[in-house]
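Supplementary Methods, section 5.1.

A reviewer requested that the exact input to the structure prediction be made available. We therefore reproduce it here, unchanged from the version used in the analyses.
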Amino acid sequence: MKKDELTAAYLTKAEVRFKALGFYKENGAYSDVVREAQELVELLLKAVLRTIGVEVPKIHDVGRVLEKHRRLLPPALNNSLDEIKRISKRLRKERELSFYGAEDFIPTEEYDSTDADMAIKDAEFVLCTVRSALTGR
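The structure derived from this sequence is encoded token-by-token as follows.
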């Protein structure tokens, strides 16, 4: 495993974004919580790919790529990969709707505190798992 400056920057950006989730939730911006949680998870998983020396694809859900290279993952990530993949896939599905919405889907009306709480819980799980695997803390 290698950890370079860009990988470290991804982890730092994810930690800052995690703090921002609380701000969005406190202000009732539940759709923004979901969108930012997705980006946070994406950054973390791309940091993992960089760390194990795998080309980072330009897609939003890299769960399948992680699965393909499962043997290269640290044990903590390997043991949690199924849950991490589930989280990444679910948040990826919400990515565009939570940000742009649609004619029949107004993000500020469709998302609620329950959605925000789930996104925060999932983002925290991925953050803690990846942070521990990459930094030991």
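The first helix runs from residue 5 to 26. These observations are discussed further in the main text.
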